[in-house]
Amino acid sequence: MSSRGRARTGKVFWKLSISKARDDIFLHVKIPADIETAKQSKTDCIYKKGLTVQLYINVGSNLNNVHSFYMIIDNKNYQLNTLLDALIFCFQAYFALDIKYAPECQHL
User: Fold this and answer.
1) Closest to 101 (Cα-Cα) out of 91, 13, 2
2) Which of 21, 56, 85, 99 would bridge 80 by S-S if both were Cys, CB 3.0 to 4.6 A apart?
């Protein structure tokens, strides 16, 4: 990541934002039946940028009363009880699997 807050993939640069970093780690799906559709559109968007799909956390239903968290790795869902458990699992998976952070999240 450059000091100017920009990320690069190949020859393409883009300006990073807090919302972009948040959207790269979290996927908010309001209706449980839409999880697979949301995962597919996230995957398609990432491939259009020329990147690979990284780990991310699926946050279900209403943000005021969230009761489901899923860690997505290789299109497999791992259900966790709390957001903290999901974040810990996410960072442990990055280290255990030796995965590079997505450009939007390299500052983390």
Assistant:
1) 91
2) 85
